[in-house]
Amino acid sequence: MKTDDLIKAIAEDGAASARPLSLRVLVALGIGGLLAAALFAQALGVRPDIGSAMQTWRFVGKVVITLTCFAAALWATAQLSRPDAEPRTALAAFSLPMLLLGLAIGVELASSSAGTWSARAMGSNSRLCLASITLLSVAPLVALLVALRAGAPRSPAMAGAAAGLLAGGLGAVLYAIHCPDDSPLFVALWYVPAVALVVLAGAAAGSRVLRW
Amino acid sequence: MRAGMRGDARSYHRLLQELAPVLRGLASRGFAQHRLGPEDVEDVVQETLLAVHLKRHTWDERQPLFPWVYAIARNKLIDNLRRRGRQAHLPIDDIGESLAVSELPAEMNGVDAERVIARLKGRQREIVVAISIEGASARQVAQRLGMTEGAVRVALHRALKSLARAFRADPP
Fold first, then answer.
1. d(CA B135, CA B18)
2. What's the CA gap between A105 and B163, in Å, rounded?
3. Could you give the angle at which helices B111-118 and B149-169 cross, rounded to 10 degrees?
């Protein structure tokens, strides 16, 4: 087949715009998010003392950190699904929530006595935390990977990792409003590995299913 | 491309025709860097054009078009080299130089493309051949095959997707 002939076929297929990638990502996030929220409502639910918790900096900090992770990952996912992506984007997305977490840890260490640190870090629900965040992330991750198959990532593994961070971030936001452990030390010790697991899963899946 | 995105078929056709020689220059340079002959250049050109078309929604209209096209071409060139077991490393900074390539090799048929198009299934292949090689329009093909124009378009779109997939799966 001559290239000119192929061009004829492509032009006949038309350029009329396909749905933009960002829209597909948002739809996938909506579907995956609804499924995760349903699972959350069924299995976990919002903590009963949410009203008084919202008055404390630890709870607010925890929610802000997980939301930041979610927002940075949303931006990174959209960027990294393009062929001309700047890989440093990913670094920015990962470091922003970590920076906030580091700050919160600093405040926590300065404002509480050393004797309470290990109890704060271990919390009361660590295993539930690991399991919940990863399980809540499954539906969003699958939906995102399906949507991103329309993308053209420069690095499929990196795009998958960003999708994992996004799904993990969503799971973390949901879990954060259930979990009674608010210390940044607990977040660092349990939320971070749980989300990291989802990131790794996303990278592994992405390097397979996001090739184009 | 912007006009094309708004459904102006003629500018889209012209854009693709203008991209082809630029991509040809890029691919020949890439192959030359790896001391490879130009046999497969046209395959990279065609694979890139298909990807530009099928992935056009990943282009941000506020950005210039060429870096995006170049990124796709680079990706497809590396894929092609990898399929042949070459270690591929292309400098990123040869955008300007490759744009300057004006002496282009005569157009050749894609080598893989022949095999790849042969893999399309009956209807899809008929439609692609009629539109590309015979230059028919979707409407004419629809009349000839007794299908609706919409069905022809859907089949054509699927055929282009299978072409892209077949390129990827094609062994060296």
1. 19
2. 53
3. 130
Tokens of B67: 């870096």
Residues B16 and B90 in one domain: yes
Segments forming the whole domain that contains residue B130: 113-169
The domain tally of chain A equals: 1
Q: Tell whether A90 is covered by a domain.
A: yes
Q: Are residues B16 and B97 in the same domain?
A: yes
Query: A78 to chain B: which residues are within 8 Å by CB?
Result: none
Q: Give the chain B residue whose CA is nearest to the CA of A79.
A: B58
**Residue A98: which domain range?**
19-209
Q: Are residues B70 and B151 in the same domain?
A: no
Alpha-carbon gap: B171 to the closest alpha carbon of chain A (Å):
16
Contacts of B7 in chain A (CB under 8 A): 14-17
CA B122 from chain centre, in angstroms, equals 22
Residues A103, A75 contacting (CB under 8 angstroms): no
ipTM for this model: 0.78
Give the model confidence (pLDDT) of A28-73 as tens digits.
999 999 999 999 999 999 888 888 888 899 999 999 999 999 999 9
Interface of B with A in 122-151 (CB under 8 A): 128, 131-133, 135, 137-138
d(CA A106, CA A199): 25
pTM of the prediction? 0.85
Percent of residues in chain B assigned helix, strand, coil, to nearest 5: 75, 0, 25
